């Protein structure tokens, strides 16, 4: 980090689950290291404000776990973006219609999955029953077809999202404004949707860093674990 910062102005984009916090059996079970928000604010200051969290979670969910964070942040896979002072960057995300949510909930209940409401879509979690992966993804794809929605898959989850809700779009939105613009972006993430974030970083002359074992198509570097991320970012 110190070497990169010394080489030129750097912007950091950080995924949340699986990157800053360990994956847990269900979304509400994560263990957020004490003082994480404080340490991220320290890193933000070290980067003169050029740090943004980019998560699949809805922003209110992210803040429920982190506390008021005063960081630039994108939630809902990039669809909802706030600046560090809480002002909005771009449009607010649009939720799914009530009948669509009811149908997704009913499917989750019937198949004993956890349904997570998102401000831009919904997520069917099958982490506790990995054998349900293919059937859940097939249902989600079929559901999205014809509704102008699309499906993203992640670790133990099938998510129904609106088109354009990508981490690449989030990187592009932040890189278009001060203090990010003209700097070199680095995106760190562990999951499939982070590939879009890596693409966004590459677009602006930067690079991606993959976390964990997942084979990445686009990342230039790898960090082995959440602990390695904390060490590299000097968040300890
Ligand atoms: O982009 P991220 O910040 O990494 O968010 C991706 C998804 O994270 C959450 O689900 C994942 O983490 C859960 C807790 O560790 C885990 O139980 C689940 O299996 C994972 O898919 C979150 O619930 C989703 O909304 C995010 O999209």
From TrEMBL:
It comes from Qipengyuania profundimaris. InterPro entries: HAD-like_sf (IPR036412), HAD_sf (IPR023214), OTSB-like (IPR044651), Trehalose_PPase (IPR003337). SUPFAM superfamilies: HAD-like. Pathway: Glycan biosynthesis; trehalose biosynthesis. Its EC number is 3.1.3.12. Belongs to the trehalose phosphatase family. It catalyses: alpha,alpha-trehalose 6-phosphate + H2O = alpha,alpha-trehalose + phosphate. Its cofactor is Mg(2+). Keywords: Hydrolase, Magnesium, Metal-binding. Removes the phosphate from trehalose 6-phosphate to produce free trehalose. One of its GO terms (molecular function) is trehalose-phosphatase activity. The gene is otsB. This is Trehalose 6-phosphate phosphatase. It is an enzyme of class 3 (hydrolase). The lineage of its organism: Bacteria, Pseudomonadati, Pseudomonadota, Alphaproteobacteria, Sphingomonadales.
